[in-house]
């Protein structure tokens, strides 16, 4: 039963309408484009699928996960963009895209306990995680992408590596559930966490810093690599930079543009830091971006006072459902993004090592 956090203004029928919107865009193959007639990318496709799982659209979510399995490449990766089932971009494969399959599948399993699907898609998860980890550098960070000739990008992204860090947690849980040993994943996760915590110089080495993006600010909390007093300090440092009162979280610090998906992810990051009151307040602001169909506009331009761009993305709707679950405990997966949960025998991997001298 849904246990609404005090002050959270959202009704079950609103959540159902939001899930219906995602379902109305989903193709028969299981693919979930950004919106009707548009492309999809694998990461956002999984984000939308998790929204379907939360709302009880389990068959739709399963089809979306099976789409990932059906379109996985022989090396375990994915192309970054598809028109339905057809690749649109074949120049690179990004490291965080395949890894996110583990997150979506574990999330679905927590809700449905569908062990058959977990078993069936295990080879895809294993191939996906191994693909991503083949791009892990000795220092622990994971390269952003490889090109069509398997050349590694010479740089890494904080946000992408944070996503992989959470995906490794989910993959380890899947392996444990299936009684499969992958101790190398524990080691890879530990090294990645150390890079994110102690080695900021490993990121944005060859391109302009991405610190202007709010995701770089709060994703280390969302993935569980920063917590406790350090998390509170990090939130405080850039709160006024990224928060537009009454609207939500800016996508970037230097533009008057609030985005709903980033705001929802920040809601979950705030919950992970014990900031439930702030999380509830920001979530309630977002309903001004909801339309009559239950969809949410991607963003709002606060200077021009218009929704921009003129699109209602399925991954934004998925993020809304995920934040609602985190606040209201709708499903057994409500805390997936607000705490770290590893098999008991792997709890030693929860703690990062001290920074090397």
What does this protein structure show overall?
- With 357 residues, the chain is mostly helical.
- It has one domain: Glycosyltransferase (Alpha/alpha barrel).
- Helix content is 49%, strand content 7%.
- Strands 7-8-9 form a three-stranded antiparallel β-sheet. Strands 1-2 form a two-stranded antiparallel ribbon.
- A hairpin with a 2-residue loop joins strand 1 and strand 2.
- The longest helix has 20 residues.
- The C terminus is likely disordered.
Report the sheet with the most strands, covering strand number, pairing sense and barrel closure: 3 strands, antiparallel
Percentage of β-strand residues: 5-15%
Q: Percentage of helical residues?
A: 40-55%
Shape: globular
CATH domain class: Mainly Alpha
How many domains?
Answer: 1
Q: H/E order of the elements?
A: HHHEEEHHEHHHHEEEHHEEH
Query: Termini separation (Å)?
Result: 50 Å
Helix-and-strand structural type: mainly alpha
Task: Please give the CATH architecture.
Answer: Alpha/alpha barrel
CATH topology: Glycosyltransferase
In the sheet with the most strands, the strands line up as 7-8-9
DSSP strand count: 9
What's the gyration radius in Å? 19 Å
Mean model confidence by pLDDT: 94
Count of alpha and pi helical runs: 12
Unreliable runs, pLDDT <50, ≥5 residues? 346-350, 352-357
Summarize this entry quickly.
With 357 residues, this protein is mainly alpha-helical. The chain has helices at 12-25, 42-54, 58-71, 96-112, 115-133, 158-177, 183-198, 214-222, 228-242, 260-272, 276-285, 314-328; strands spanning 81-83, 86-89, 92-94, 145-147, 243-244, 248-249, 257-259, 299-301, 306-307.
């Amino acid at each position: 039963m849904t246990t609404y956090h005090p002050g959270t203004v959202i009704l079950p029928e609103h959540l159902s309408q939001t899930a219906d919107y995602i379902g109305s865009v989903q193709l028969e193959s299981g693919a979930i484009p950004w919106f009707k007639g548009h492309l999809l990318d694998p990461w956002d496709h999984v984000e939308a699928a998790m929204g379907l799982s939360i709302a009880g659209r389990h068959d739709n979510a399963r089809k979306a996960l099976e789409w990932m399995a059906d379109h996985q490449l022989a090396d375990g990766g994915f192309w970054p963009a598809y028109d339905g089932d057809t690749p649109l971009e074949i120049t690179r494969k990004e490291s965080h895209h395949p890894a996110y399959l583990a997150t979506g599948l574990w999330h679905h399993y927590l809700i449905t306990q569908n062990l058959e699907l977990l078993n069936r898609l295990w080879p895809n998860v294993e191939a996906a995680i191994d693909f991503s980890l083949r791009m892990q550098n000795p220092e622990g960070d994971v390269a952003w992408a490889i090109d069509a000739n398997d050349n590694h990008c010479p740089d890494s992204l904080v946000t992408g590596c944070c996503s992989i860090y959470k995906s490794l947690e989910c993959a380890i849980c899947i392996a444990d559930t299936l009684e499969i040993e992958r101790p190398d994943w524990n080691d890879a996760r530990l090294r990645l966490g150390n890079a994110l915590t102690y080695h900021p110089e490993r990121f944005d080495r060859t391109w302009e810093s991405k610190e202007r993006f709010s995701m770089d600010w709060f994703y280390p909390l969302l993935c569980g690599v920063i917590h406790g007093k350090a998390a509170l300090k990090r939130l405080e440092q850039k709160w006024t930079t990224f928060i537009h009162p009454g609207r939500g979280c800016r996508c970037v610090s230097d533009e008057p543009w609030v985005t709903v998906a980033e705001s929802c992810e920040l809601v979950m990051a705030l919950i992970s830091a014990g900031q439930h009151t702030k999380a509830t307040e920001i979530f309630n602001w977002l309903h001004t971006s909801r339309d009559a169909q239950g969809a949410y506009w991607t963003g709002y331009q606060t200077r021009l006072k218009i929704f921009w761009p003129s699109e209602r993305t399925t991954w934004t709707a998925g993020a809304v459902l995920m934040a609602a679950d985190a606040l209201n405990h709708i499903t057994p997966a409500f805390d997936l993004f607000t705490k770290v949960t590893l098999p008991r025998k792997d709890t030693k991997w929860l703690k990062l090592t001290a920074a090397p001298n």
